[in-house]
Amino acid sequence: MIGFACDGPTATNLWAEPLRPNVVLIFVDDLGYGDLGCYGNAKIKTPHLDRLASSGQRWTSFYSSGSYCVPSRKGLMSGRHPNFIPNRVDGLRDDPQALLPAMFKRAGYATAMFGKWHLAGYPKDFTQHPMHPLECGFDDHLGTPGSNDVPAPKGQKQTRDLFDRCDKYTFPVPLIRGREVIEFPANQELFTQRYTAESIRWIQSHRDEPFFVYLAHNMPHAPVFASPEFQGKSAGGRFGDVVEEIDWSVGELMKTLAALNLREKTLVVFTSDNGPWTVFGPHGGTAAPLRGEKGTTWEGGLRVPAIFSWPETIRPATIDGIAANLDLYATFANLVGGDQPSKKPGYDSKDLSPTLLDGQPSPRSSWAYHTTAFRSGRYKIHTTIVPPADPISRRRQPRTVLDQPQLYDLINDLGETVDIAAERPEVVQRLLDEKKRFEEREAR
Questions:
Q1: Residue 269 and residue 34: Cα distance in Å, rounded?
Q2: Strands (E), 187-302
Q3: pTM of this structure
Q4: Beta-ladder partners of 375
């Protein structure tokens, strides 16, 4: 293991001393921009999340670090743009102590992770892998190595047909506590309830010390499963059942924090790892009113819900400024008095605390969508069109490299329907120049 040098906070904090809140980060899988009531969904009922959003900050231009699972988690856990992390599932294994949970641990926090990891691939023995959560700064762990559809049943592929007819045990996914496999195959209908109960028990037992909980739900990644209590209840179908159970989970956690008199001492963040896998029909959600879905670099692939709640500290607001999940590293570090890996290639985390705590504009003005699209302010260019994963073969269709970039005004055209590149060539060139400078700077 390569040692980690503490570089100290790199962004200006609003207070001389860190506020040191407890932090609960709820990270769901494949939830779309339009899948919650507070983001416009009229069928899926999410009263707990809607209440969380109305009492805190709801961000409208918050991005996942990638348009699918692994790069998004790489960015989240490292604060680094995934463009500059080795293109391996376990591309952060050179320094696990530079990851987010290790930062919390060095700052004196108890740490726990419940749910999907997906930063170690699918090794034969995940329990002893150098990128196991316990090697990366977590004190406690319960969850799965990766997605709930891997591995596929022997001789089969992850297709819509298989998702339609599979049951809760079809996919041989292990449930692991620490370094022990406790259920194989795991009952997928119980994932959300088990992680919720485990999080509550853990918080109750660590109520007297600062803590960081990373609750990374497997759902609503396809194939979707809700517990029996939630099946067939949502007007949004089976996908809605799953999202409404996640909303219930959020409500249970908030009740626990309130009962322990910890609500005003705890920052709660809720967001998704990428956009919805809409091609899988009832197993996927919606990014409406955005264009695109998981795997694409249209807005629907990376723009996701993001809610920040901290009663008496974060005032209710809707924030339209740009931010990304990799910005949580610097934000948390400055709030808890932690160090940042600012010398790591591609470290691009921005401290959002001035916006969260004082209503200042977001420190981020641009965003790179992998290497094929780039946003600066209201404008966005596409240099390559990336299609979603094929629902039949689950393999990517060919990308289309554009002879001329496409340009969209995201303020007037949120759905990316009208290419205005011919009308604004100077804007296209400016964004191309910014994109190039970003890639050259972060690669150093």
A1: 18
A2: 211-216, 266-272
A3: 0.95
A4: 367, 380
Query: Number of C-alpha atoms within 13 angstroms, CB side, residue 386?
Result: 23
Token digits of residue 291 = 């264009």
pLDDT tens, position by position, 359-393: 999 999 999 999 999 999 999 999 999 888 766 65
Q: How far apart are CA 134 and CA 101, in angstroms?
A: 10
Percent of the chain with pLDDT over 70: 94
- The amino acid that residue 444 corresponds to is R
Q: Which residues pair with 63 in a beta bridge?
A: 303, 324
> Which residues have CB under 8 Å from 29's CB, separation 6+?
69, 116, 147, 216, 217, 218, 219, 220, 221, 272, 273
* DSSP labels, 39-71: GT-SSS--HHHHHHHHHSEEEEEEE-SSSSHHH
Catalytic residue among 69, 132, 136, 206: 69
Please say if 221 is a catalytic residue: no
What distance in Å separates the CA atoms of residue 101 and residue 93, rounded to the nearest whole number? Answer: 14
Look-up of token digits 């073969």: 393
DSSP state of 369: E
Determine the Cα–Cα distance for residues 40 and 269; give it in Å rounded to an integer: 19
118 as an active site residue: the answer is yes
| Residue type (1 letter), 393 | S
What is the C-alpha separation between 282 and 287, in angstroms, rounded?
Answer: 14
Q: Is the peptide bond before 405 cis (omega within 30 degrees of 0)?
A: no
Three-state secondary-structure class, residue 229: helix
**Active-site hit among 81, 118, 217, 283:** 118
- What are φ and ψ of residue 233, in 5° steps? -100, -25
Q: Are strands 140-144 and 110-116 parallel, antiparallel or unpaired?
A: parallel
